[in-house]
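Below is how a single chain appears once it has passed through the pipeline. First comes the sequence as given, then the structure the pipeline wrote out for it. We keep one example in the README because the format questions we get most often are answered faster by looking than by reading.
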Amino acid sequence: MKSREKAYRAAYWKQWTAKNRPKRKRICTCGVEFLGNGAQRRCMACRTAVCPQCSKEFVTNITGRKFCSRRCLALAHIEILHANRGVKPRTYHLRHRDKHGSAADREWRKAVFERDGYACRECGSRGRLHAHHIKPYKAFPGLRHVISNGLTLCVPCHKKTDTFGWANYWKNEIAAKRLSQEVLPL
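Resulting structure:
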């Protein structure tokens, strides 16, 4: 008998529950009242969207979904990347300094190199050179562009100075704090 078969009974009850399950009236976020079942929270009009890439209408259960497929999303991102290629963000000037500083910094560096004959003052090498501030750049703003406050040093000699890089900066800060502490008598 057909009604005793398991697959038949499962299909029959699935069809019966779909037809007879009570649908509750729900109110969508847009204010429209609709009949929904399960976890449906939005009406069909709110769930329908148009893909900006292929202009195809699609139904989504995810709020804020803009594209009909991952392919359209990827194509849109590629278009955005090509459109913005070479364009800096509007806050670029706040975060990044020019690689070689301002025009005054470049002129000062060139003047120091010319004065020292494009050779390191410590070892005399003519390899990769840095213009070193004798008095630190940040601590003495008045001496930033004074040529007598500059030395031409190669990279290894510059690394040996007390004011090269952040590691030495913190080393010097810690040493200064230790020296400023009082020693308690025994």
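The two ends are 104 Å apart (CA to CA).

See the next section for the split statistics.
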